[in-house]
Amino acid sequence: MVYLYDQYLLKAFQATEKATTKERAMHDEERIVYNTAEDQEWADLLSPARRKIIVGAALTATGLTAGNIVAAGQEVIAPGGSSFKPIVPPPDVGKSPWGYETYKEPTPRPRSVRPGEENGLPKTPRPYTDIKSYHAHFYFDDDTYEKAALVRRWAAERFPVELGNWNLEPRGPHVTPSFYFGFTNDLLPIIVPWLQLNSLGLTILLHPNTDDPRADHLYYTLWVNRSQPVNAYNMPKQASVEKIFPNTRPAVKLET
Ligand code: ZN
To answer: Ligand 1 centre from 135 Cα, in Å?
Structure first.
């Protein structure tokens, strides 16, 4: 079967390839893009054997050479020729404030900060009815603010939500510009798929509101697209649950 297929390919090739051997050679030649002298120099330089030498040279320059890394008299290859010398800032003068015994410190086990797991795994699941409402936080920057504005308008036109104002700087646990809307639990099965299809690529944090704002932002989250850091470590572990007061006037029928 393979043989027959090869025969077929050969015939097809012979039928379509009318060029003479000389012309074919020319065509093949045209497909090859040769390295410039400079490209080739870099390719040679970055070959594994050469890299070893460069690393050795860099270590020498920073005073980290272990006796066996660079043999005496070994040629140093570097961009710009053998006269090239890397510029290394001078070392700081002084002493480390941490002392010089830190490597002897025992490895500590941090206390669990996940809610309900302070003393090992929880005995029972947490009731889902502890969630009283949700927030959707939309993150953007100067490249994506128009997308944020569009999703914000679309959402406000369609859903009865509590829409916050624009935060052009980090605010609360949110480390980039953002806006948010809050919504009641009954909207969750609509808003989640709607955001999945209409995020325009923005990073969106969906978090529930329970009586533990820190866990709401750090451990109970859903993300649309990529996640990003949330600076909620110092948020209270106990607080009154956030209430939602819808302030939009949706007038556009939801697309279905
Ligand atoms: Zn929130």
So the answer is: 5
In a domain, 92, yes or no: no
Please work out, in degrees rounded to the nearest 5, the angle formed at the alpha carbon of residue 152 by the alpha carbons of 184 and 167. Answer: 95
Q: Would you put residue 172 in left (φ > 0), alpha (ψ -120 to 50) or beta?
A: left
Give percent of the chain with pLDDT exceeding 70.
74
**Any domain includes 35:** no
Query: For residue 122, how far is its CA from the centre of ligand 1 (angstroms)?
Result: 25
| Contact assessment for residue 170 and residue 142, using Cβ atoms and an 8 Å cutoff | no
Parent domain of 199: 130-224
User: Which one, of 153, 166, 179, 147, lies nearest residue 252 by Cα?
Assistant: 153
Tens digits of per-residue pLDDT, 33-59? 777 787 777 777 666 665 565 555 554
Task: Let me know if residue 188 belongs to a domain.
Answer: yes
Q: How far is the CA of 220 from the centre of ligand 1 (A)?
A: 12
Q: Is the pTM of this model over 0.85?
A: no
Dist. CA 87 → ligand 1 center (Å): 48
